[in-house]
Amino acid sequence: MATELYDLTVPVFLRGFRAMAAFLEKSRAWADENGIPHEELLTARLHEDMAPLIAQIQRVSDSAKFAIARLGQVEAPAMADTEASFDDLQARIAATMDFLKSIPRDVIDGREEADVEVKTPSRSFHFKGLPYVTGFVMPNFYFHMTAAYAILRHKGAPVGKMDYLGGI
Q1: Under 8 Å between Cβ of 21 and 93
Q2: Three-state SS string across the chain, please?
Q3: Interior angle at CA 123, CA 118 and CA 126, nearest 5
Q4: CB 141 within 8 A of CB 13
Q5: Taking 60 as the threshold, does the pLDDT of residue 7 lie above it?
Q6: Which residue of 7, 44, 68, 98 has the fewest C-beta atoms within 10 A of its own C-beta?
Q7: Mean pLDDT in the chain?
């Protein structure tokens, strides 16, 4: 049996969001136990030219919701990128997961050869469905998820590989 496009996206994203929600919560609890202001973690960056933790979580959300919207030819929920707290980030993760769960399998499966266009302010990218997922969406999703994890780890939060993997 061939792997379906839905199987390569929605369940993978949901697992990633569950792991992120857990490692964010673990980091918040650690900050509280150690008197570290949340702002110190939320605005932390790995390098001055990289986005802070809040933006990394926003980009993980965007990667997943826009991928599914483009593949399924459905409207992605609008999210204003105004998150400023751990609670806000958890709410964004939950909203993104709710959107993903609302998409029926048959909207995604069979779209492996569909034309997908990604527009940025400076250019457009054109893909077929499967290469879009495997060569663009997944690397982007995991880049930002890894950056979020690495920021927290760099700041001293006691998160480890199993937290990132979601406690498989």
Answers
A1: yes
A2: CCCCHHHHHHHHHHHHHHHHHHHHHHHHHHHHHCCCCHHHHHCCCCCCCCCCHHHHHHHHHHHHHHHHHHHHCCCCCCCCCCCCCHHHHHHHHHHHHHHHHHCCHHHHCCCCCCEEEEECCCCEEEEEHHHHHHHHHHHHHHHHHHHHHHHHHHCCCCCCHHHHHCCC
A3: 40
A4: yes
A5: yes
A6: 98
A7: 96
* pTM above threshold 0.90: yes
Q: Are 71 and 133 in contact (CB under 8 A)?
A: yes
User: pLDDT tier at 3 (50, 70, 90 boundaries)?
Assistant: low
Alpha-carbon distance of 69 to 61, in angstroms, equals: 12
CA-CA-CA-CA torsion for 72, 73, 77, 82, nearest 10 degrees?
100
User: What are the tokens at 76?
Assistant: 């992605």
Residue 19, both tokens: 């792991």
Which tokens in the block code for residue 139? Answer: 């690397």
Residues 138-163 pLDDT 10s = 999 999 999 999 999 999 999 999 99
pLDDT the model gives residue 143: 98
